[in-house]
Amino acid sequence: MFANLRDVGGLSLIGGGVTRPGVLYRGDVPAPEGSTPELNGWPPSLVVDLRSDEEAEKRDVTWPGATQRVGHPLHDALALAALGPGSDLAELYTAILDGYSERVTAPLSAIAAAEGPVLIHCTAGKDRTGIMVAALLLAAGVEPDDVRRDYAQTNHAVPAIQARLAPEIAKHGVTLDNSWWQAQPAAIEVVVDRLTAWPGGPRQWWLDHGASESDLTLWAEKLRGE
Fold first, then answer.
1. Pairing state between β 118-121 and 24-27
2. Is pLDDT larger for residue 100 or for residue 187?
3. Which residues, 6 or more positions from 116, have their beta carbon under 8 angstroms from its beta carbon?
4. What pLDDT, on a 0 to 100 scale, did the predictor assign at position 173?
5. What's the whole-model pTM score?
6. Intra-chain end-to-end CA distance of the chain, in Å
């Protein structure tokens, strides 16, 4: 069913401890065939869908057990050409953080208020999901190296993602260089550097881009188990 689904529990926290399992899942859009891996607390109570409205219309997904679904487009996955020839993932991530940072922070209220596990997903579970999840992890005090490692885990799923999505993307006349399929260290470094270097750190980055103090505190307590 999924090519790239996992729980972000067990990541190291600054100051000690690890993130709780069964709080936040990250994934791709599921296919009709196959089964869901066994995850602590599955199914999610809240699903945050980062796909564009067009993508969601083409591949509608139902989520048995979920009490709420939030459609929250982060960017158009098929509009990569707008970056210009020769662009790379680091430039895409930079463009999102420069121009659409409020789209990253906007779902926090729903995420913090969710009564059960939250699933964040896009089409491949790599770029839009990677940015959103990295920002959430940093906001909760996850060690930056573990944020990088979590992002890099997607590379294990790239062959399955590519087999599933390449034919669909080709229908739109788009051919992606192989590097675009990879979870690139330079790309996630854009997110880690931006938030950790922000005056006041990741938490202040969230506050400066529309998040509330109470939502940030509740989110961190949930993921940290405090």
1. parallel
2. 187
3. 41, 44, 45, 46, 67
4. 66
5. 0.93
6. 33
